[in-house]
Amino acid sequence: MERIAVVGVGQTKYERGKTKNFAELVYEVTRKALDDAGMELSDIDNVVTTTNDFFDGRTIACMPIAEAAGSYGRDATNVEGDGTLSAFYGLMRTLSGVYNTTLVTSHCKVSEGAPRKLFNQAFDPIYDRLLGMDAISSSALQARAYMHRFGITEQQCAKVSVKNHGNAKNNPYAHAALDITVEDVMKSPMLAEPIKRLDTSPISDGACAIILATEDKAKKTAKKPVWIKGVAHCTDAYRLGERDLTRSLPLETAARKAYQMAGIKDPSRDIHVAEVYDAFSYMELMWYEGLGFCGPGEGGKLIDSGATQMGGRLPVNPSGGVLSAHSVQVAGLARIAEAVLQLRGEGGKRQVPGAKTALAHGITGICAQTHCVWVLSN
Amino acid sequence: MGTRTAIVGVGQTNHTSKRKDVNGQELINEAVKRALEDAGLTLKDIDAIVIGNMDHFEAINVVDGWSVDGSGAFMKPIMKVTTGGSTGGTLGSCGYYHVASGLFDVVMAIGWEKNSESDTQAAISTCSDPILERDFFGGAIGPNAAEYAMYMKQFGATQEDAALVAVRDHNNAVKNPYAHLRKLITVEDVMKSPMLCWPIKLLDSCPRSDGACAVIYASESKAPKITARPAWVHATAVSHDYVYFGDYDWEKMPTCQTTVSRVYQRAGITNPLKDVDVMELYLPFSTCGVVWMEFMWMCDAGEAPKLIRRGVFDMNGELPINPSGGVLSTNPIGATGLIRIGEAALQIMGKAGERQVSDVRTAMATAFGSCYWFEATVLRSTKP
Q1: Which among A73, A115, A378, B20 has most CB atoms closer than 10 A?
Q2: From 3.40.47.10, 3.40.50.970, 3.40.50.720, 3.30.450.40, which CATH number describes the A4-114+203-218 domain?
Q3: Domain ranges (residues) in chain A
Q4: pLDDT bracket for residue B284 (50, 70, 90)
Q5: Is B219 on the interface with A (CB under 8 A)?
Q6: Whole-model pTM?
Q7: Pairing between strand A101-109 and B373-380?
């Protein structure tokens, strides 16, 4: 793969009930990403936006934010799904030889919708939807299946929540920075057994943008380029009954491909920091396994060991992760933005010292049906 | 320089107003199977899939995940792209860029829609700003009706001129076994059909259809092994207009002009009447087949009716437009733009059956939708 870099990133603060509208949020991060890269809109060849007609509450949801993303008069396109997929499509467009620079944006105001009902719309309209299935109830099935198979405890899941909410205190963009203990998580209200309120991510509004550039263009930008070494995505079966919910085969497949592209042999050694999509606390443990940070069923042991804490061997979610800010389709793009900040040494109080290779991960669909894995390096 | 990319397989459903015999996944699978059959491939050969439709028509969130049983994306990379009516064009571009990036060798783009499950115009109305414009920019017909009313006043064009376009496309569809509406009509039939929004009448207007289309893109190293005559992608381009309909320049259609000039430049086209052998255009109303011709470099301002009356765009004319019958005959919205690309590819590949134009070396397809989003693709029998 030809060398393509992330040369600019921009994020809003994530919070519930933002008063800015979609276009204003997208404009904020577009401007921030351009400033970050030391670029002007005239330097941008094409634009990839990310929308969801359900969360945005209108059809053709790419319309209202197009101008804010600077796409008027430019070649543009729109992805519906996690921001890691939009960024991947942006990478393809930059590699195609047609464009030199690509702006990728994602926005979501989860607080304006009814997220449980909107996620219910992802279920089969005839067989599953009327059961009231949603992100929390379906993830609870997955959590229970995973915990049962491997003997993972609720306390081990709670440790993820304690770690990530604590890390969020170092991230000025985070929504839910919390000083909590495992006991606090265990005592928080049960939403869908075994998932408790503090095992879940918040309802956040926000936006994120990144700019991709070819090697020639990247040399001329303001910040040190962060190179894309490997990217891959993969999708599981649709119906929950047809899937092994306890192991994420699409994640293992996507990670294997991304590592192969990036020349990563031992991910637990070769990756120095990871930002993963932990919509629920149990997910982070499962993603450790899928990403090869530990063996199958060893996610609980890994969190117990402290290896994924700040200061550990492989810090995961120094930003506080998705548990601390969840603007749905923004969340994966934010993982990439955070990985870029780490590789530039601009992580501030959440910086992992000396990070040279970082991993960013996104999911979409029921119980993370689709995974996308990015490996970046400075 | 990216990887040179060609279309190597096309499949589509038999489009109709209500496909009650299949659910969405089965509808998609019908197109997928036909595309694989056309290319002589199996699902194992497909490295990645892109899919698209308009969410509010079927009310299925995360369509990419839901589609797996029909699209065949199990344990494969799949992503969803959507831009409203132009989704099919957006899908074609997405398939192309997947391969052109060098990261995937064989990629399938799938567009689909089951309009029979939706209230199409009500869903489209929600694309307008909820506070400022939603109350009065309802549906898709109003803007194009206003566009042709202005054109008639400015250039002395008539409703019969638009009717000639409707007759051309509808009558071409008779030779397309996949088309939804297949009935020979006359200018008189069009003029007598019920008025929907003056000057657009029922037979000037596209139907809403259930249908799906799948197009397979392959890299330079794979394409010649898959088919003897691939349709090489020479250029794609797109542009869109402003957020608010009230800001548009209704007389100049800047998105059509921008996209077309960009794609002509990228493909080295200076005179489309001579340089292009066949076009599959996303004309949602017959009136667009009159007004937009000047923006596509076919003629000077206001001259399109003369060319249309002369039959320049008929099957035996200088530049046949819509041998398939076009959007006026078939409109499963999320698939419609991709059908244009698929039909243009079939013309290059010499597989268009009774609707084949002879000796096609250059073909062009367009898509149209949302905020006047206008996409175009140029295909050739020779490598770029």
Answers
A1: A115
A2: 3.40.47.10
A3: 4-114+203-218
A4: very high
A5: no
A6: 0.98
A7: unpaired
